[in-house]
Amino acid sequence: MKKIKYELLKNEKNTKARLGLIHTNYGTVETPMFMPVGTQATVKTLSPEEIKDMNCGVILSNTYHLWLRPGEDIVMKAGGLHKFMNYDGPILTDSGGFQVFSLAKNKKKDITEEGVHFKSHLDGSKLLLTPEKSIEIQNKLDSDIAMSFDECPPASADYNYLKNSVERTLRWAKRGKDVFNNPNQSLFGIVQGGAYKDLRKFSAIETVKMDFDGYSIGGVANDGESKEDMYKAIDYSIPYLPEDKPRYLMGVGEPIDIIEGVIRGIDMFDCVLPTRLARHGNIFTRKGRINIRNLKFKEDFEPIDGTCDCYTCKHYTKAYLRHLIVANESFGARLLSIHNIRFLVKLTEDLRQAIKDDNLIEYKEQFIREYENK
């Protein structure tokens, strides 16, 4: 096998949720699933073995960052991203588009038909990222799944801007697909269009015509976008995406958003949120987020969650975790990252079971009652 293959196992009776399998060259993963983000060929503070122990399937790495350092040619000489980072599970690389629009030095960039001219966030050097260059980098990285290069418009963009952006993203998608040259890799197209029904429909239909190996719904994790607009973007896109290909919602990691995405037919999620929150002492729990820095945890000698099966909850107390975070010890960020990632992976495991049992709506209602302390 070379390309990934999606296998639909079951549609939930009461929602658009679906249970599936993605067969890859590095094993088969179950969907719906959450993908931890390993931006620079590492999930921050964690080893590949720890990622596997948390039952993670696919992990995500970033084209933009790996292009700047160490460089795609170094990764290729190492034998590809799997060997370079010693991860024998599936890897997805994003196109670098989001980082170009969010990290470019001084936020100054020039979007042309050719691509995006911008300054490196590292040293300010002038760079140009085109659809062809993004695909060339990803081909050399040799991930299992590569993403098309798209424009990431701001959440504040008006209809006319978004219309032009969608049309440009479609042209870029075709250019990227035309130069795609890695028989062991799959390529996903990206649907854009903001919260406009006609633009999402147009973007989805035209992207599907190009016959990608999977489809992503983009533009839902920008700063300032409302939950309502996110859910609209999904609802307006899903009806036009094929049943036999995976559907990926980019950049979403809030537990309730994952549940709402699954209900609407999404298979794959990724987000930096679990590790980013961990570095600041924030923890996911079934009763909502907590900040371990709070004084009330100073003498709390219980685990974060006595029912959680993660390494952190099995071995450490909230008092010790608080001490590590307050003392700015990196081990604290590691332990909280383990818990937060496992929390979201376990959430998707529970969602898969709820789909099997056809009780996803009941699961959602119960989860929200507990999570929002209602």
Description:
This protein folds into two domains: 5-270, Queuine tRNA-ribosyltransferase-like (TIM Barrel); 272-374, no CATH class. The protein has 15 helices and 16 strands. It has helices at residues 48-53, 63-68, 72-77, 81-85, 97-103, 131-141, 159-179, 197-209, 227-237, 255-263, 273-279, 311-315, 318-326, 330-356, 360-371; strands spanning 5-11, 18-24, 27-31, 33-36, 59-62, 91-94, 109-111, 116-119, 126-129, 145-147, 186-191, 214-217, 247-249, 268-271, 282-283, 290-291. Helix 7 (159-179) packs parallel to helix 8 (197-209). The radius of gyration is 20 Å and the shape is globular. The model has no long low-confidence stretch (mean pLDDT 95).
Main traits of this protein?
3-stranded antiparallel beta sheet; 8-stranded parallel beta sheet; globular; 2 domains; 41% helix; alpha/beta; TIM Barrel; 374 residues; single chain
